Amino acid sequence: MLIPLAALPEAVGRVMLVFCGLASYAFVAHRLRAKPISIVFLLLSPLVLHVLLNGNVDWLAMIGFILPPPLGLFFISIKPQIGIAVAPFWLIEAWRQGGWKLVVKTFVPFAIVLLLSFALFGFWPTYSFSVIGKSWNASLWPMSIPVGLALFVTSIRKRKIEYAMAASPCLSPYLVFYSWGGALLAIVSSVPETIAAVVGLWVLVAVRYFS
Phi and psi dihedrals of 50, rounded to 5? Predict the structure, then answer.
């Protein structure tokens, strides 16, 4: 998907990557019913700026939140720590809407690719436990497990994907700081909460910088 960018000169490729990232965050926020002011605060948050400065592609995984589940599953699997609770949310929703037939239609293509990845690379989900103690690990796991489970159950009860998006980082044993962007997107439809969260994130960055 990013091969055309790799063919460009390095400086141009970096600029295009930043543009794609900003556009993707803004588009996903728009689809999640964010008002313009919320989108501005989102794009100016340390989470978004950090991921763009690092040239990472978390925004690709977050595009999966607004895609049809059969396609979205492939996108959120780019960074499982960002959407780990979204997949079971979609599973339960598929069962509610169409029973086992819709579950099969939605999940079998992704399941086949997932099993092939295990055959080629081993059971790679277990690799995440090897980096739990790393200094860059911004996960709150396992302390965040109760919060994550509560948010996931709320997503099932209210049938709203935003709660599953917020639950995912809480249930992941590792993630970098900017991967909390999925949780920020979960509240982007509300202006006061978005502003409060972004201000709080900048306070966190300042405290860590000066401590």
Answer: -65, -45
Asked if the peptide bond before residue 142 counts as cis, ω within 30 degrees of 0, the response is yes
Predicted local distance difference test score (pLDDT) of residue 92: 97
Backbone angles phi, psi at 194, to 5 degrees: -65, -45
pTM of the model: 0.88
Rg for the chain (alpha carbons), in Å? 17
- 172 closest CA partner among 128, 111, 110, 204: 128
The mean of the pLDDT values for the chain is 90
Comparing 189 with 1, the larger pLDDT belongs to: 189
